[in-house]
Write a structure and sequence with these properties.
The protein is an all-alpha fold. It is built from 5 helices and no strands.
C-alpha cells in the first residue's frame, strides 16, 4: 500500500547516480566560487596597495590595526575560496568526487564567512578614515545585517521552507 502511494505521488529531485550528482554539484560549486573569488581578489588587491600610500602614515594605531586584521582576513578568504580549485586538481581522477565536493563546499562557505569579515573590516576602516564620525559603527552594522540577510538568512529560510531535509 505504501509503495502504491509513493508511486502515485509526484517525484521530486533528479534520477542520477552519486557520481552524476557529484559532477553536477561540482559544476554548480565552481560557478559559485568564481563569483566569490573575483570579489575577494579585487578587494584583497586593493587592500595590499594601501600600505604603500602616503595616507597610510597618517592612520591612527587603531586604524592600522583594523587594516592589518583586514589584510589577514582577506588573505584567509582568498585561500579558502581558491582551495576548491586546488582540491579538485589534486584529487582529480582518484574517484573521490563526492567527498571532494563536500569538502569544497565547506571551504567555500568558510570563504564566504571570511569574505564577510573582510568586507566588514574594510568598510569600517574606510568609513572611519573618511568621516571620523560616531555613526560609522551603526552604518557598518546595517551593512553587515544586509549581507547576513542576503548571504545566509534568505538562503537558510528558503532551505527550511522548501525542503524536507
Amino acid at each position: 500500500m505504501a509503495d502504491a502511494a509513493q508511486g502515485g505521488a509526484m517525484r521530486r529531485g533528479r534520477n542520477e547516480t552519486e557520481e552524476e550528482r557529484a559532477d553536477r554539484m561540482w559544476q554548480e560549486l565552481i560557478q559559485e566560487v568564481r563569483v566569490a573569488q573575483m570579489g575577494v581578489q579585487i578587494l584583497f588587491g586593493f587592500l595590499l596597495t594601501v600600505v604603500f600610500t602616503e595616507k597610510y602614515d597618517e592612520l591612527t594605531d587603531t586604524d592600522r590595526m583594523i587594516y592589518l586584521v583586514t589584510v589577514v582576513l582577506g588573505a584567509c578568504a582568498t585561500g579558502a575560496l581558491i582551495g576548491p580549485v586546488s582540491l579538485h586538481r589534486l584529487v582529480s581522477g582518484r574517484r573521490v568526487k563526492p567527498q571532494a565536493v563536500r569538502l569544497a563546499s565547506r571551504l567555500t562557505l568558510l570563504g564566504l564567512v571570511l569574505l564577510l569579515a573582510t568586507t566588514t573590516a574594510s568598510l569600517l576602516l574606510i568609513l572611519r578614515v573618511a568621516t571620523h564620525d560616531g555613526f560609522v559603527p551603526y552604518l557598518v552594522a546595517g551593512v553587515v545585517g544586509w549581507y547576513l540577510l542576503c548571504w545566509f538568512v534568505l538562503p537558510l529560510w528558503t532551505r527550511y521552507k522548501h525542503t524536507s531535509q
